[in-house]
Amino acid sequence: MNQTTQMIHEDALPGHESELEPKPEWQPRYPGSGRLQDKVAVVTGADSGIGRAVAALFAREGADIAIVYLLEDEDAQETRRIVESEGRRAIVIRADVGSREACDGIVEETLHTFGRIDILINNAGEQHPDKDIADISEEQLRRTFQTNIFSMFFLVQAARPHLKPGAAIVNCTSVTMYKGSKELLDYSSTKGAITAFTRSLSENLVADGIRVNAVAPGPIWTPLNPCGGASKEKLEHFGESTPMGRPGQPNEVAPSFLFLACEDASYMSGQVLHPNGGVIVNG
């Protein structure tokens, strides 16, 4: 078992969606309207949670999907089945997005299969709760930044030569970037980096007709929290601190990604949407 795999399995990450109870709600809530017709989207972390919901909704709107995932083969194949049930094509790519070489391979395989990339959804992430900053090992710190932010640099660098005017990049940041999280110091720090990356990359690419935006979900019921080391007590009250008093579902977040990826958001770049249950973050 290599060092990366050891780190991942320390907290049972990334976790099987098929084993969660209750099951996360990924199903699109309305008929498609062709907003992504014949587009090609790369979606990282697409085997479960928000990534699966995004893949399903994008497929319903007419896109072919490259499903990028880390370890959960069964969940990835289920996402593939979902995409194909919408009448679209899908490929599954097992890869560690924290590796530059792997990100190069993701882009190469997508281009080989579909011939183009129109949308890049940087959604993959990991977290490891720690109550004391002294408990965060150097290995964990490096791994969290590698997965959550280095991956975005690597994938954009690999995809950039193939992104044409009209392309869209949407990154997944978090409410923790805005309000902080005392037990997720390294995770929330990466989310701050992602927001800065989004705004800066937008400035870098907007003149070339490529829009870059982000989504900052609040507490969403996905494998990330129950499999990422959250305590039983925290899970029992997960999402109750939001004004809506409940966690969100992946299919309540996916429409924000769709809006930013399609032409409905043609005059938006460098922005962040906040599906977070009513938390006011002023950012």
From TrEMBL:
Domain of life assignment: Bacteria
Alphabetized InterPro entries for the sequence: NAD(P)-bd_dom_sf, Sc_DH/Rdtase_CS, SDR_fam
Biased composition (Basic and acidic residues): 8-26
UniProt KW Oxidoreductase keyword: yes
Entry keywords, A to Z: Oxidoreductase
Region annotated Disordered, chain positions: 1-33
Keyword Protein transport tagged: no
Family per similarity comment: Belongs to the short-chain dehydrogenases/reductases (SDR) family.
Name of the molecule in the record: SDR family oxidoreductase
Taxonomic source organism: Novosphingobium clariflavum
